[in-house]
Design a protein that fits this description.
Blueprint lengths: L12 H18 L9 H10 L17 H10 L4 H8 L12 H7 L3 H16 L41 H12 L3 H6 L1 H25 L31 E8 L4 E8 L2 E5 L10 E6 L4 E7 L4 H13 L2 H7 L2 H6 L8 H11 L19 H4 L4 E7 L1 H4 L4 H23 L4
Antiparallel strand pairs: 1-2, 3-4, 4-5, 5-6
Helix pairs in contact: 7-9, 9-16
């Protein structure tokens, strides 16, 4: 039996190379994949080795010289732009490489790219429409300017604006606004509106201390709590006029009879009470409407709870309200000189509040109640009309304060019934 040799078997060169390749492959698999970058040296060598090819976009001119000369001249300097582009970008001639996962994500269109494309397309659509571009017709020649005169308020004339009086221009503005009850017109006459609004606000602000002296329960509140806005809320109204209007009946004589005409007028207004223009208390009211100015007080369409309290007090003790209405100054100034009688003052008072009165008896009361005329009322107000000249006169605030003194017992009665704990 032959003896086995202890020497290792000779390994062929091919086997050793294969084992080295397998080892290198295992090492390369363990390491992260590295993107291969083409060497600039290889690119330059490839450019040098590559031969210029004829462009398919340009045809060579007919020449009697041999083809070899033309090829040599083409190698020295090519006259084709297409060939220069091919020489500048040798990546087209390079061998294809494996595409990695990162390259796949780069090829996917991103959101930012889409936004940029949409912006570019929008800019392309707007291109040529700019007013500054040459050839665009804007109605102006180069160097021309359009100067729009800023509207100015109406001239005050010889009457200066004062805090204690209303200026005649404020009345003229309300008359103009009544004939042009439109937002576009008011924008064009904004200085007149601001001047009139400021004039009325300074009048109200200077009148407040005088009312507080007569009725000590009225505090000096800021203007925003006293002055009503001139704009109307037209969201749920069938009347589209944007500014407040007032109803003014006029009697125009005609050959046969008198015709009752309804004229719409805009107005400024303000109210004073313990809580200003809003709240449950009875208030003093000044209404500045050309042709229909007045001063008044009371509760206009109160809520159901204070209205129920008023009706209960009238049913149980009507002498309290009737005693206030029978005062001499009250009958002279607000009840058209009614006689000193309960029925006369009640008739004058209910006639003044007839527009909101019930047609029948209120719920919970009998129709034959002795105070049914007062129980049917939904508003408890009194007022006196004054002329435009009186309200715009120098002594307008003194007259208003005097009327407030006459109305004060009536307001005190209403507040004592509606808010007994106050």
């Amino acid at each position: 039996m032959p003896r086995r040799s202890s020497r290792p078997d000779p390994v062929s060169p091919e086997a050793s190379m294969a084992s080295k390749r397998r080892a290198s492959a295992r090492l390369s698999a363990a390491e992260p994949e590295v993107k291969r970058v083409k060497s600039n040296v290889d690119l330059s060598l490839r450019q040098a080795k590559s031969t210029a090819s004829k462009s398919k976009y340009f045809e060579a001119e007919d020449s009697d010289e041999p083809d070899s000369d033309s090829d040599a001249s083409a190698e020295e300097s090519s006259g084709s732009v297409y060939e220069e582009a091919r020489e500048e970008s040798p990546a087209d001639e390079a061998e294809p490489e494996e595409v990695s996962a990162t390259e796949d994500t780069k090829k996917k269109p991103s959101t930012k790219g889409k936004q940029q494309q949409s912006t570019n397309s929008r800019n392309n659509l707007m291109k040529g429409k700019e007013l500054w571009r040459e050839g665009v017709r804007a109605g102006l020649e180069p160097g021309q300017e359009v100067i729009i005169a800023k509207p100015k308020p109406r001239d005050a004339g010889q009457t200066p604006y004062q805090d204690e009086t209303l200026h005649p221009n404020t009345r003229l503005f309300l008359i103009d606004l009544a004939g042009n009850n439109d937002r576009q017109w008011l924008k064009a006459h904004d200085p007149d509106y601001r001047a009139a609004k400021k004039d009325f606000e300074t009048f109200v602000e200077s009148l407040t201390p005088k009312i507080s002296e007569v009725d000590t329960t009225v505090p000096e509140l800021p203007l925003k709590d006293l002055v009503f806005r001139i704009h109307r809320d037209v969201r749920f109204s069938k009347n589209p006029l944007p500014y407040k209007v007032g109803y003014l009946p006029l009697r125009v004589p005609v050959p046969v009879t008198c015709l009752r005409v309804c004229v719409w007028r805009t107005h400024f207004s303000a109210a004073w009470s313990r809580t200003g223009k809003k709240g449950p208390y009875a208030a003093y009211y000044v209404h500045f409407q050309p042709g229909s100015c007045f001063v008044g007080c009371g509760l206009w369409n109160p809520e159901s709870e204070p209205l129920a309290l008023l009706r209960e007090d009238i049913d149980e003790n009507s002498a309290g309200l009737k005693g206030v209405l029978r005062a001499p100054e009250m009958r002279r100034e607000f009840l058209k000189g009614a006689s000193d009688d309960d029925d006369a003052v009640v008739d004058a008072f209910t006639h003044h509040n007839r527009e909101s009165a019930l047609k029948t008896k209120p719920k919970g009361y009998e129709a034959d109640n002795e105070n049914i005329k007062l129980l049917r009322l939904r508003s408890f107000t009194i007022g006196k009309p004054i002329t435009d000249n009186e309200l715009t006169g120098d002594d307008a605030q003194e007259k208003i304060a005097a009327l407030v003194g006459v109305m004060e017992p009536f307001v005190t009665y209403l507040n004592s019934v509606v808010m007994p704990d106050q």
